[in-house]
């Protein structure tokens, strides 16, 4: 379990929101730890003979950061797309540091997507935030959280590009599942950075040990969420509520499930009119889970979500 930092965040003045200088200092501290091209694009290329692959945008962050690149944003569709079929949207890597969201989405496509192709149109965006994937970060280079930026005139290019991709099928979607992780670094780095950026005090919290889901409080689907929880439990453990009956500060409404107003908060899972929506949250730092289990948990969640949505189509 992560412990909150004892010292103030090293950038900015406590109580004062960041300006351009603080954002530039933050960006100067970011390091590219891994390769989007080698670890993600190469996998997508191997899938190209079996699926339709498209570039739906390009992030020119080499104009901001000298050692950054130009990042193609890639989507995968099943072959023989048919307009009469419902659309299933799978997104991963909205927060690039949440590794199993990216590789779980790719693993789902490789292992399971073809068996659903005759019943749904699959649209998979496995790595929405490639710069953040490389830098193992929550934000983009402008210190913006893409997963709070899914709204009109979004300041996050990652979010705006995905919304453009999804716009033609927004009202035809049956399901959208957005793959995330909750990590120890949420408490040790990203929440303190958020508080510092916004000039607010940092309030320490806790990191749940296990998998959980975020339902849409404006259109909850409890039976759907529990079907996903039951499938994932065969792969990894489910996060318990804390002593306050909460997970990350939100009331647990059912085992392993909390709720957010997805669209109101600008969250990725709120970008369609799908009757079935959920955000997965895997805990990769658990002593009880491996990276392989985390990827498998994401895959299990996607399959269970599709199976339930098809059996209970609205």
From TrEMBL:
<comment type="similarity">
    <text>Belongs to the peptidase M14 family.</text>
</comment>
<feature type="domain" description="Peptidase M14">
    <location>
        <begin position="32"/>
        <end position="314"/>
    </location>
</feature>
<keyword id="KW-0479">Metal-binding</keyword>
<dbReference type="InterPro" id="IPR055438">
    <property type="entry name" value="AstE_AspA_cat"/>
</dbReference>
<keyword id="KW-0862">Zinc</keyword>
<dbReference type="Pfam" id="PF24827">
    <property type="entry name" value="AstE_AspA_cat"/>
</dbReference>
<protein>
    <submittedName>
        <fullName>M14 family metallocarboxypeptidase</fullName>
    </submittedName>
</protein>
<keyword id="KW-0378">Hydrolase</keyword>
<dbReference type="InterPro" id="IPR000834">
    <property type="entry name" value="Peptidase_M14"/>
</dbReference>
């Amino acid at each position: 379990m992560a412990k909150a930092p004892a010292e103030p965040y090293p950038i900015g003045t406590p109580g004062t929101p960041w300006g351009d200088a603080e954002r530039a200092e933050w960006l100067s501290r970011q390091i590219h730890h891994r390769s989007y091209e080698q670890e993600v694009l190469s996998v997508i290329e191997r899938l190209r003979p079996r699926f339709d692959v498209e570039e739906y945008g390009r992030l020119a962050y080499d104009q901001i950061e000298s050692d950054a690149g130009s990042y193609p944003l890639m989507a995968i569709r099943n072959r023989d797309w048919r307009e009469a079929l419902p659309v299933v949207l799978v997104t991963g890597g909205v927060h690039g540091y949440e590794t199993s969201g990216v590789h779980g989405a790719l693993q789902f496509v490789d292992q399971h997507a073809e068996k659903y192709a005759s019943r749904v149109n699959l649209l998979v965006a496995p790595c929405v935030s490639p710069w953040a994937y490389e830098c193992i970060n929550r934000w983009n280079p402008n210190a913006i959280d893409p997963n709070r930026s899914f709204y009109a005139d979004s300041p996050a290019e990652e979010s705006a590009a995905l919304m453009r991709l999804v716009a033609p099928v927004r009202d035809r979607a049956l399901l959208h599942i957005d793959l995330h992780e909750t990590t120890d670094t949420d408490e040790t780095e990203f929440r303190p950075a958020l508080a510092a950026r916004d000039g607010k005090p940092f309030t320490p919290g806790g990191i749940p040990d296990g998998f959980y889901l975020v339902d849409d409080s404006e259109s909850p689907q409890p039976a759907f969420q529990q079907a996903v929880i039951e499938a994932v439990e065969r792969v990894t453990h489910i996060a318990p509520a804390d002593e306050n009956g909460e997970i990350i500060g939100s009331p647990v409404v059912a085992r392993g499930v909390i709720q957010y107003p997805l669209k109101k908060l600008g969250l990725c899972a709120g970008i369609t009119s799908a009757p079935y929506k959920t955000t997965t949250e895997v805990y990769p730092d658990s002593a009880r889970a491996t990276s392989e289990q985390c990827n498998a948990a994401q895959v299990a969640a996607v399959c269970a979500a599709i199976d339930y949505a098809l059996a209970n189509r609205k």
